[in-house]
Amino acid sequence: MAEERLKASAALSKLRAARAATLAAEDELERSVIDARHVNAGWARIAAELGVHQPNATRKYKPLIDTRKWEPRNKWDGVEDKATPALVVVRHAKAGLDKARENELQAVADARTADARWHEIAEIFDMEVSNAMVKFKRLLVEERVVRVRTNRDQEPAEA
Prior knowledge:
By secondary structure, the chain is mainly α. It has one domain. 66% of the residues lie in helices and 0% in strands. 22% of the residues are buried.
């Protein structure tokens, strides 16, 4: 039992690290979009790099610009067309976020394989247990393994 909880604890630690990486990737994507807007890249071009429709990109990221959540970074001083490299950064940030989300989902699967409980996973994501289950359970295949008992599995005979 202690060994099983140790495995679950290790898997949950990996999940925490994956979650932190995903949050950092989300921040980087937000900053990249703000940087792109700062150099006058259009919403349609930003949306194309994100793989979403323009109104969705505007709805999600414009409030971040309006509230000045991040200050724009001046990365492309001396470059005539600043929008093109800014859009490349958006594309790379989006790819990084996609990869981080894949790693996070794999970490959830690994945690469940190690018998981590849903409430432990939900705590890492700062969500209710039911919401964590709705978010992840449909993306996972959980199988119950039933096998034939071997001689080593036999209970000790009474003397």
